[in-house]
Amino acid sequence: MSYDLCIADRGYSSWSLRGWLLFAAFGLTPRLTVTRLYEPGFAQTLDGFFPARTVPALRLPEGLVIAESVAIAEELATRHPEAGHWPADPKARAIARALVAEMHAGFTALRSHCPMNLRVSYSDCAPPQAVLDDLARLEVLWAWARRETGAQGPWLCGDYSAADAFFAPVAGRVAGYGLPVSDASQAYVDAHLAHGPFRRWRAMGLVDGADQPFYDRDYPRRPWPGPAPLEAEACDGPSINDACPYSGKPVTDFARINGQVIGFCNPFCRDKTVADPQAWPQAMALLQP
Questions:
Q1: By residue range, what is the domain housing residue 36?
Q2: Which residues are paired to 58 by β-bridges?
Q3: Do 167 and 135 meet the contact criterion of CB atoms below 8 Å apart?
Q4: Kind of pairing, strands 57-59 and 232-235?
C-alpha cells in the first residue's frame, strides 16, 4: 500500500510537520514530494495533488487526493488501526479527538505572532495578551487531558497519539520563541524536542533549502533548547561504510561524527545527519566502539 505525501519547507511548515508525523511517528512511510512556500513552484506542485490547495496533501493508494491533516489522520487511522493514531480506550480517544479539533481550528493569535521556525530560537518575542491567552488555553487543555486520561508518560493521552502530532508544532513555537509556560507544560514541550521523529524532521529542516525571509524576526536569539547535537562536520572520505545507511546505495559524500567518517549517497543524507547525528539510528549504528 503506497502513499504520496506532499509537504513544504520542513523548517517552517507546521501543517506539513503534522502530516509527516502521522506517518513517521506511527511506523508508516510515504513517498514524499517536497515543495517550497512562497515560490511559483508551490502552486504548480499542488496542481499535481488536485483538489488540494494547501499542504499536507496525500494521494491515497487508489489515486484519490485528500488534504487537511485532520482528514489525513482519520483516514490513516481507519486504514491502519494497528498503528495507534488514536488511543484504544474510548474516553482517551474522545479526548484526543477533541484536542485535535481545537488545535486545528484555534490558536490563531499564537500562530500569527509566532509562525513556526525550527531553524532559530529567540529568548523573547514580546508576546501580546492574545498570545498569552492562547498559552493559557493550552495549559488548561494539556492538564485536562493528562488528568482525565491518567497519562503517566510524557504524552497527553497515554501513548503518543495523533493529538501529540498536532501539538508538535506548538512545542516548536514554545522552543523557538521562548514562550512562557508552566513547568508541566515545559516538560511536555521537552518531550517533543527529544522525540526521535521530531528531531529528524528538524534536522532535515535545517538543511533542506535557503532561509525563508517571511519568518525572520528581529528578536534576541539563543541556542536551540532541545538536546544538544553530537559534534559532526562534512569532510572527505574514505568512510568506514560502503553503503549509505538510509538508501543502501554507494557512498559519495562524507561526514566526520564522533571522530569517525561515515559515507552517504548524497549531500542531503550527509547534511541532515550532520545537523543532528543522534536523531538518526541508522547512522549511529555504524559508529564503532
A1: 4-83
A2: 5, 66
A3: no
A4: unpaired
